[in-house]
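Quick board copy: two proteins, each given as sequence then tokens.
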Amino acid sequence: MSTKESKPAEKEKPAYELRTLTSQDIFPICGILRKIGIKEIKGIFSSSEIADLVKGGKPDASAIGMSIAFDMAGLLISNLPACENEVYAFASSVSGIRKEELRAMPMADFLELIIAIIKKDEFRDFFSVAQRSLR
């Protein structure tokens, strides 16, 4: 029996590079959000359950986060199939990977790609500006 410790395999860098998001990306993002249910997303953040968790002394950030996460997951599971083609088209335009290749991609790899797109600074900036304009 060997006493050597096995190192966890280093995660390979993705074989794609994400382009910078530009003003032309606002339109497909809005289309996807509309199909997911932008009004429902807003409702999640202003639900009576969240209001109850915030009431009183010190709000429980963990409970609030879990409530929002479960509601968002339910909403996405319900409505994501309605925008499948739009998600593939947008991911393809940002990554340069053909839609057919995205459809054949292992689930974990595809989710990592989507998360990488969502984590882009330009994506977060878009939502920050949109949120400020709704106040």
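And the next:
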Amino acid sequence: MKPPTRSIHVFGLAGAVEHPKLHAQTLGVLGLNSRSRSGAEKFLQALVGETLNHLPSVSHSDTEVQASRIDDGTGGVIDPTLRKEAAKDGAPGTRQKTGTLRDNRSYNSRIHNMPSIEYNLFRAKFIKPSQSSLFQDDLTPSLMFLRAVEERPSSELRTGYLWHIGNIRLFSADTGYFAIGRTTKATIEKFDETSGDFLEEELETSPYTHCVFNAQIGLIGIARKATLAQTTKGIANRIKQLLSSSPVIADSQVSVEIVPIPDPEDFLASLNDAYAVSKFSATFRGPNPFDADEHFQKPLSVYLSSANGEKGKAQIQGEDLNREVLQAVTRSTAATGNEASARIRKTKSQKSTTINLRGDPIKRRYDEEEHKPNEVLKDLTTIYYQVRNEPS
């Protein structure tokens, strides 16, 4: 009896998945007859989804299973038309010529399927104690920032993990780039061809990520790196610890904070569209931010520092609060890395609901291979001024 004819179908994973384990796109060759092809596709979809569930920073929308698609060796199957469209907005890695944070979100989604690197926006604060010394009075926050970075601090922030700041490069007197990473030892198993034995060898590994900064306004852009921390907030905490350990900060007893700058646009839109705003609250920290608003952040921050406090929260109530004042306070709150909430009624007949300004920092994606740190900083600085609603 003649064996049944079997047709061969090649299936590959298409899409720029941001994880080294999936950079080899081809999943395999399955010997299946044509009637089984649909089932094989469902099987691979399930396999891909299950794999991605265990990988950081990869969403199911980033991938799709397609027939006869094989990686070309670039680390991702990339639609050439998408790269051309992105180039129309400016070369990858250059600042986008748009005027709103919503435009930036649109750009992020358009290059989502490229091999990309994601920068998150943070605010660096250097808060002096209420009774400062003569040495502290001579140091501005921006000068403290620069000196702390230039001292290239290293510290064992966790047993067996030595963290460092290095690769410092200045773009101007107040702006520049540095890398942050950690060194740890790992044991690998290998085969020695000479002895014919399996051996264990201890090696040092030092994964790192990119940071750009503007010391004048206390701005830091931190590139996400899953091998260093699950989130950029975790990396920001390590930067805070390293800068705090530098002699210039430790000797002056200055408190360092690295806090995310959230996107205030949705919060502001909810405030503006509401029928009434009956309650508004915001957090504040010690004085330092030059861009704190005159109504709320600046006076309360001075009060907090005088009382030797670290963080505070204030709340106001009324039948319908002044939106113009709330807008200014909201933008100042976001730009200084604080949080806000409000009770609003969307219509006259609806019950009040709470909206919040907090959580994740503003994100911006760039082409991983072609992005330039100095252009990234220009872009992030523009976004920061958009948060404040001021020209850059």
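Board note added afterward: DSSP finds eleven helices and 16 strands in the chain.
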